[in-house]
Design brief:
Elements: H1 3-10, E1 26-30, H2 34-47, E2 50-54, H3 57-66, E3 71-74, H4 83-89, E4 96-101, H5 109-114, E5 120-123, H6 130-141, E6 158-163, H7 169-179, H8 188-208, E7 236-242, E8 247-253, H9 260-272, H10 286-294, E9 297-303, E10 307-314, H11 320-325, E11 329-334
Parallel strand pairs: 1-2, 1-3, 3-4, 4-5, 9-11
Antiparallel strand pairs: 5-11, 6-7, 7-8, 8-10, 9-10
Helix pairs in contact: 2-6, 7-8, 8-10
């Protein structure tokens, strides 16, 4: 990734075309639980001082009659529903909805595919991650998109590995695992799981993601046994870190070929169909599905034509079955061309 592209992502402000400054952004929180509502309001106010809270849908809809909001964070409670968010967005194309999720996403993929404006799902299983709430709002309001930084403790040491040669794939994975502490930190099962996910994402960076100036794939037609070497401007980057709670992994390429509909289509095929992931698109395919299955938070940052980045957070203390079947956060941040 070039420095110019990196700066472009860091300078992305989703509200720039609306002439709304971050301090002017209006956030509405819809949460029935008083304690959780107060915590959410406190966190939201740190990012957007014009934050308000409603204890019910009716109260929220009344608030909309008095003023417009830029972001709505909504907790539907135990019964999954996006009907309220659909009403909020109807006739208000600039509203960004954020849904608090209390059950696994895969049961609602059809609704999510149909309503592609819903790109931010925050998992609530036991407790909410306030760091994730803050990171989500900061990225929506201020536009700082790339990296593990918003999701890990500030002092976390990160290891960055440039991905340029498919023959070095095993070395890249080993470097990543060693940077996470190896067997001093990771169980054999966790190390194997992370290694598999790194392998899939590295293959995506090497074979699937690279595009020519016309948007055509450069290497996707090649067998995975054929060597691929990327020029410096084509190189991907794998970054890992561990802050004592979460293992963080990010993988980004300088092409920006991934789209939300591709991601959701892959998920639907993997969760519900026997159909194998095909050769269309420009995403991680099976690697993306494996990563989602085992992580706690799954974030994708895209600037079309410039970069795609996966940010994945894993909790090493979570049992494998719980990890696979639990509720996961999902975010898709995209800078419109």
């Amino acid at each position: 990734m070039t420095l110019a592209n990196f700066k472009s992502i860091l300078e992305w402000r989703p509200f720039a075309d609306r002439e709304i400054l971050p301090t002017e952004c209006k956030v509405l929180l819809v949460e029935a639980d008083p304690a959780l509502r107060n915590v959410l309001l406190r966190e939201s106010t740190r990012v957007a001082r014009n934050s308000k809270a409603a204890g019910s849908e009716a109260e929220a809809e009344e608030a909309f009659t008095k003023e417009n909001f830029d972001i709505v964070i909504y907790d539907p409670g135990e019964n999954f529903s996006i009907e309220f968010l659909k009403r909020c967005c109807a006739g208000r194309p600039r509203v960004i909805p954020v849904l608090i999720l209390r059950e696994p996403m895969q049961g609602h993929l059809d609704e999510l595919i149909e309503n592609q404006y819903l790109r931010n799902l925050i998992a609530l299983e036991g407790s909410l991650s306030m760091r994730e709430i803050t990171a989500t709002l900061e990225k929506l309001v201020q536009g700082v998109v790339l990296g593990l930084g918003p999701y890990l403790v500030e002092s976390t040491k990160l290891k960055r590995i440039d991905i340029t040669d498919s023959k070095q794939k095993e070395r890249y994975i080993q470097e990543g695992l060693e940077a996470l502490g190896g067997d001093k930190i990771l169980s054999a099962r966790m190390a194997s799981k992370l290694g598999t996910i790194m392998d899939e994402l590295i293959m995506n960076m090497m074979w699937d993601a690279p595009l020519d100036a016309n948007g055509r794939h450069l290497f996707k037609h090649l067998a995975r046994t054929e060597r691929v070497q990327l020029a410096p401007e084509q190189a991907g980057q794998l970054t890992v870190g561990y802050d004592g709670r979460y293992v963080g992994l990010s993988a980004h390429d300088p092409f920006g070929g991934l789209r939300l509909d591709t991601v959701l289509r892959y998920f639907k095929k993997c969760f519900f169909g026997r159909e194998q992931i095909g050769s269309e698109g420009g995403g991680a395919g099976l690697g993306l599905y494996l990563a989602y299955n085992y992580c706690s938070q799954f974030i994708i940052n895209v600037e079309p034509g410039k970069t795609t980045e996966f940010v994945l957070l894993f909790d090493p203390s979570t049992r494998e079955a719980t990890s696979r079947n639990g509720i996961k956060s999902f975010h898709f941040f995209e800078r419109k061309p």
